[in-house]
């Protein structure tokens, strides 16, 4: 066996011996991979293990392959739920790769940080994270597919590298995984709520308390399918918690820092609306899709006045994680974007 056919890869920090064979598999021409299970991953489901060990496939694709008999442990075909033990030998027939991901597009990206495992991107407002109904091009995943050759596949072929999301009109820092092992680690940190996220927002109205915690469950809106709402004791509701701290108050606007403890859809937007101060220029929850300077300052409008804001004034300012490989805490910061910075400057200038 050549050196190119044998190597080591890391699964959740453990070195795992990997062998690729040239012989055709019984299902076709797919290659087979072999692994020796280290002690550090003993007790892991085989589909989860393979997701971390083999890039290019989502967990669902690998689970399906295992279900169809592609995985053997010590010569015995196993199910996706099989839990591996130290020293066992795994042989897995790798399925043919699926090439139905986003179309690569040469869209510039503002990279805040990059290493072998993940990327921190400063996402602009107006960019959808991944393709969805009505938004098939110009997405973050299309830009990522153009600029990076290798991204994690756990989220499926349509969402390469995507660990978490930001709404289309929310700007700021978002993390993207290059490998499945790093994706799993980062996703676990989000699930365990150890990730610290900080947002900046301009809220319509004056928030009275200097700081407070909003505890209100969020579920699907009863009438509007694209909205969320505060819904007590409803089947779609999940607990939601957001801490906020006022940075600066103006006559009709509050500049506020927010730290969500949970990650519900539209959480900050729904919570600020719940306390009577929706995000400025929030079409869904604030009633305005654009805002002129005269509207911002509550003055008589001038003729043909251009808008000063054309999206919700919400920015993902900072995120702190534990580095998946070194274990050290790391913080990534995305400076406030020009439109929000300009609106804030105008408020500060005209408040004196």
Automatic annotation (TrEMBL):
Keyword Isomerase recorded: yes
SUPFAM superfamilies hit by this protein: Alpha-L RNA-binding motif, Pseudouridine synthase
Pfam family of the protein (one): PseudoU_synth_2
Residue numbers annotated as active site: 167
Pseudouridine synthase RsuA/RluA-like domain span: 118-274
UniProt KW Lyase keyword: no
Key words, A-Z: Isomerase, RNA-binding
Record region (Disordered): 1-29
InterPro entries registered for this protein in UniProt: PsdUridine_synth_cat_dom_sf, PsdUridine_synth_RluA-like_CS, PsdUridine_synth_RluC/D, PsdUridine_synth_RsuA/RluA, RluA_PseudoU_synthase, S4_RNA-bd_sf
GO biological process: enzyme-directed rRNA pseudouridine synthesis
Biased composition (Low complexity): 14-29
EC numbers on record: 5.4.99.-
Annotated catalysed reactions: a uridine in RNA = a pseudouridine in RNA
GO molecular function, one term: RNA binding
Gene3D superfamilies in the cross-refs: Pseudouridine synthase, RNA-binding S4 domain
Function: Responsible for synthesis of pseudouridine from uracil.
Family label: Belongs to the pseudouridine synthase RluA family.
Name the UniProt record assigns to this protein: Pseudouridine synthase
Organism for this UniProt entry: Roseimaritima ulvae
């Amino acid at each position: 066996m050549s050196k190119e056919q044998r190597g080591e890869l890391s699964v959740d920090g453990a070195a795992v011996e990997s062998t690729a064979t040239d012989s055709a598999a019984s299902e076709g021409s797919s290659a087979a991979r072999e692994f020796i299970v280290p002690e550090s991953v003993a007790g892991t489901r085989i589909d989860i293990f393979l997701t971390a060990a083999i890039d290019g496939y989502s967990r669902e694709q690998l689970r399906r392959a295992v279900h169809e008999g592609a995985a053997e442990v010590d010569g015995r075909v196993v199910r996706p739920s099989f839990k591996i033990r130290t020293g066992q030998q795994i042989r897995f027939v790798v399925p043919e790769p699926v090439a139905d991901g986003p179309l690569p597009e040469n869209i510039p990206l503002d990279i805040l940080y990059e290493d072998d495992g993940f990327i921190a991107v400063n996402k602009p407002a107006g960019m959808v994270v991944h393709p969805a109904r009505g938004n098939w091009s110009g997405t973050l995943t299309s830009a990522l597919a153009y600029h990076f050759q290798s991204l994690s596949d756990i989220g499926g072929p349509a969402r390469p590298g995507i660990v978490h999301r930001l709404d289309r009109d929310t700007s700021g820092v978002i993390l993207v995984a290059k490998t499945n092992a790093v994706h799993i680690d980062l996703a676990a940190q989000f699930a365990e709520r150890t990730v610290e996220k900080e947002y900046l927002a301009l809220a319509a109205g004056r928030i009275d308390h200097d700081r407070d915690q909003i505890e209100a469950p969020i579920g699907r809106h009863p009438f509007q399918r694209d909205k969320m709402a505060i819904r007590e004791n409803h089947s779609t509701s999940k607990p939601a918690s957001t801490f906020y701290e006022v940075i600066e108050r103006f006559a009709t606007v509050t500049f506020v820092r927010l730290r969500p403890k949970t990650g519900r859809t539209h959480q900050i937007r729904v919570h600020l609306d719940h306390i009577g101060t929706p995000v400025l220029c929030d079409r869904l929850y604030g009633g305005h899709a654009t805002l002129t300077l005269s509207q911002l300052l509550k003055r008589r409008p001038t003729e043909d006045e251009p808008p000063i804001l054309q999206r919700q004034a919400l920015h993902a300012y900072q995120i702190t994680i534990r580095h998946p490989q070194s274990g050290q805490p790391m913080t990534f910061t995305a400076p406030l974007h020009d439109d929000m910075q300009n609106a804030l400057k105008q408020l500060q200038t005209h408040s004196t």
